[in-house]
Backbone:
C-alpha cells in the first residue's frame, strides 16, 4: 500500500513542472518535426538552414581536433583564448565593435539565454517587436519576464516601430508602468527577412541609452546581405549587447557555436551563467570555428550571392498572391507572405 501510494505521488509530481516553464510556448520547429516524423513527400519550411557544409579548413580542423588531448579536457568558460582573440579582431574589422568582452557559447540561443539570465530578474519588463524570433520569447517566458512583456507590432514594412518605442519609454518614465529593462532586435530579421538600416539602429540605441534600457541585437544572419539592399551594420555601447552565430553563415548548425559581445563590466555575471549551463563550449566545435574564421567572410559571401537566384524563383512562385503580398528578402533567408 505504501509502495502504491508513493507511485501515485511520483506520477502526480511529474505533472507539476514549474509555472514558468509551463507558461513557455512549445517550440514551433519541434512541433513541426514531430508532426512530420515518419511522413514522406512533405517539405517543412519551419526552420531556416543553409545547404552548404562548413569550409574544408574548418572540417579539417575538426578531424585534427579528434586526436588532440586538449579536445577532451575542460576549457576556459568563456572560450579558447585563440578563438576569442580572433573573434575580437573580426568584430573590430567587420562589425566596427572595438573593446568589451567576448564569450563563446553553444550557439546564439545559449548566448541570448546567458544575456537574459544576466540582465533580468523575474518580472522585469522586456520588449520584442512582432513578428519575433520564437526562441527569444521562450527565453523571456521561462525566466519570468512573461509577467511584463511588451510585444508591439512592427511597421507595415516590418521595420521596428521606433515611434512606438519612444512613446512606450516616455509613458513608462512618467510612472504609468514599470520601466523597460531590455529591448531585443534581430538584424536582419528572423522571421521577417528585413535588414534594419543604420539610422534605425542608431535611434533605437539612443532611446535605450537615454532611458537606461539594455539593447540586445541578434546578428545571427549578419552575412546574409544582398546587392541593392542596405548592408548589415552593428551598433555598440555600454548599454548594447551583440549576439552572433557560426550556424548559418558557415553551415555549422550541428556544431553549436555562437558568441556574444558585451560590456566588460558584465563579465563576472555572464561567467556565472556560463559555468552553470555549459561550463565551457565544446572544444572540438571551437577548433572548427577557428577554421571557419580562417576561410573568412569572402567564403560566405560567395555562397550567399548564390541565394539571389533562389529568392527570385520563390518570389516568382508567390507572384500570384498580388502586389505587396510578399515582404522581406532584404536580408537573412526569409520572406513573409
Residues:
Amino acid at each position: 500500500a505504501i509502495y502504491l501510494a508513493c507511485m501515485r505521488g511520483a506520477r502526480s509530481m511529474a505533472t507539476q513542472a514549474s509555472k514558468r516553464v509551463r507558461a513557455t510556448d512549445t517550440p514551433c520547429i519541434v512541433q513541426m518535426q514531430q508532426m512530420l516524423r515518419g511522413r514522406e513527400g512533405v517539405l517543412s519550411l519551419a526552420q531556416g538552414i543553409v545547404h552548404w557544409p562548413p569550409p574544408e579548413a574548418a572540417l579539417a580542423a575538426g578531424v585534427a581536433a579528434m586526436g588532440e588531448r586538449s579536445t577532451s579536457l575542460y576549457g576556459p568558460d568563456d572560450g579558447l583564448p585563440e578563438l576569442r582573440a580572433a573573434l575580437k579582431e573580426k568584430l573590430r574589422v567587420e562589425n566596427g565593435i572595438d573593446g568589451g568582452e567576448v564569450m563563446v557559447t553553444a550557439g546564439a540561443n545559449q548566448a541570448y539565454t546567458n544575456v537574459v539570465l544576466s540582465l533580468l530578474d523575474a518580472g522585469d519588463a522586456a520588449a520584442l517587436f512582432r513578428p519575433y524570433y520564437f526562441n527569444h520569447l521562450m527565453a523571456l517566458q521561462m525566466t519570468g519576464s512573461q509577467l511584463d512583456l511588451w510585444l508591439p507590432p512592427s511597421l507595415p514594412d516590418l521595420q521596428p516601430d521606433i515611434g512606438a518605442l519612444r512613446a512606450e519609454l516616455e509613458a513608462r518614465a512618467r510612472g504609468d508602468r514599470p520601466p523597460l529593462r531590455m529591448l531585443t532586435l534581430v538584424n536582419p530579421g528572423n522571421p521577417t527577412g528585413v535588414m534594419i538600416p543604420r539610422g534605425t539602429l542608431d535611434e533605437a540605441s539612443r532611446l535605450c541609452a537615454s532611458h537606461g534600457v539594455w539593447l540586445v541585437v541578434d546578428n545571427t544572419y549578419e552575412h546574409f546581405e544582398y546587392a541593392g539592399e542596405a548592408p548589415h551594420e552593428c551598433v555598440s555601447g555600454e548599454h548594447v549587447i551583440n549576439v552572433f552565430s557560426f550556424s548559418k553563415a558557415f553551415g555549422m548548425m550541428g556544431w553549436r557555436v555562437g558568441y556574444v559581445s558585451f560590456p566588460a563590466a558584465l563579465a563576472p555575471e555572464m561567467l556565472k551563467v556560463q559555468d552553470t549551463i555549459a561550463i565551457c563550449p565544446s572544444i572540438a566545435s571551437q577548433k572548427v570555428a577557428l577554421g571557419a574564421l580562417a576561410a573568412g567572410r569572402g567564403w560566405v559571401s560567395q555562397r550567399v550571392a548564390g541565394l539571389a537566384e533562389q529568392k527570385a524563383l520563390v518570389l516568382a512562385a508567390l507572384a500570384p498572391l498580388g502586389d505587396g503580398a510578399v515582404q522581406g528578402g532584404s536580408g537573412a533567408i526569409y520572406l513573409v507572405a
Summary: Residues 82 and 290 are 8 Å apart (CA to CA). The radius of gyration is 21 Å.
